[in-house]
Amino acid sequence: MAKHQCPNCYSPIPLSYLLFSKYTTQYRCVECSALMVSNRRRKITGLTLTFFSSFLYSLINSYVQNLFLTTLVVFIVFFSILWLVPNQVELVDENVGS
């Protein structure tokens, strides 16, 4: 199974859901209608990246005084790492498609 696919039918989960949804937001697969939510891995990854991002922001800001550039670099790093972590969703509705 690839990084970001429906655990039921293996269709891809959109990047927009993984990057911009809240941890309590549920996602319904377009292909099989399986209901998914963020699992513990996504929540721990998000919290860790939040602390890492604040540290990275203060580190970069001490060397580069451009606020826009510093913020842009931190967001790119944050979203890239969040996208690279696999298996961030789990099924809520186990009986779909059976």
Shape: elongated
State the share of residues found in helices, binned by percent: 40-55%
The neighbouring-strand order within the major sheet is 1-2-3
Detail the poorly predicted runs. Answer: none
Describe this structure in words.
With 98 residues, the chain is mainly α. The protein contains three helices and three strands. It has helices at residues 15-20, 40-63, 67-84; strands spanning 27-28, 35-38, 89-91. It has a three-stranded antiparallel beta sheet. The longest helix has 24 residues, at 40-63. 9% of the residues are buried. The mean pLDDT is 80.
What is the gist of this entry?
The protein is mainly alpha-helical and 98 residues long.
What keyword list fits this structure?
98 residues, mainly alpha, 3-stranded antiparallel β-sheet
SSE blueprint:
Elements lengths: L14 H6 L6 E2 L6 E4 L1 H24 L3 H18 L4 E3 L7
Antiparallel strand pairs: 1-2, 2-3
Helix pairs in contact: 2-3
